[in-house]
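Lab meeting tomorrow. Look over both lines:
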Amino acid sequence: MKGYRKFILLFSVLFILYIIAMVNRPKPVDWTVTISKEDKNPYGGFILFKEMKQLFPKASIKSYRKPVYDQLNNIVTKNSAYFVVSPTFSPTKDDLYEMRSYVSQGNYMFIAAANYGKTFLDSFKLKSGTRISLLSKDSTSINFVNPNLRQAGNYTFLSSTIDEYFSAIDTANTIVLGINDRTQPNFIKVTFGDGAFFIHSAPVSFSNYFMLFANNAAYTAGAMSYVPGSVGSIYWDEYYKLGGEGPATPLRLFLNNTYLSWALRLAVAGLLIYIFFEMKRRQRVIPVIAPLRNSTLDFVQTVAGVYFNQRDNGGIADKKITYFLAFVRTRFYINTNELDEAFIAHLSRKSGVDLQQTGALVQLIQQAKHGAVSDQRLMQLDQHINNFYKQV
């Protein structure tokens, strides 16, 4: 690990600097349309929810993250309002049944969505449409039908944000409250029992940015004013924007909090670094041991040098003959006392060496034993003995 200390130190410093830079960098603007009561982004609903108490001073305001059916099932109340402001609203048949039952008791339901489910549209005999403009200018302008709320100039906003409208309505049971610049309805009222539905096609009209754009806050307040200010209870829906109550994932608590999010990242990074450096086997350095010197070879070279320097060819030949005969005795179990014709034939047969070669070798051995050994004869003897070893 000593060799990695500088690397670990440099990596740690760079990682800390990266974290500091990430924590202090400007947060990018989130342009997602949520209309959520806690969302302060441009298309959140923080301002609207905060102002609800001033718009309805007599009402108790509570938010819920439950489907309409779960919230309104078997509820018995009057003079209350239920607000659903969401990019998408697709209630089921059971939800619609509870909605109608709730409104018929003398309550109000305010719904604003850009995309409605088919079941919802069919139940109110509505069809939705979107105006498409290829010109790079402000979006469709909108206004109210009621002269008391209608403004001289239409309310405008950013391009392609409030272009939804109702292309078909049930004229027998529907009152048009708001239109766009092509007189297409985008805000309607449907009376049902003792209460009423208020249905809007542009939820962006109730977002933070819309209310702060020019004098558009007057439009949002005017649309909300159709719900009687005397209502005693207001149910604010968050289910169709955020889903059911409780974290959607086990890490949602960490990811929604900046400090917990960074704590989680640091923990994961530390774990990865630990695993990376612990992957190597932990053991002491194995020392390099020099191989043992072959002293036998040194001995042979020394002895050979002595004989060579003294020009003792007979001594060298005698040693080679002695080792050769010992080899014959231990390998082939042949008596080497008499090197006669029987010995030659027996050795040739057991070793597999040609009889003529074996005879020549034995003849050289006998000559070396009983006469002077010249350099040439010593070389011939050595060559024949080596050839014999190779053939065996």
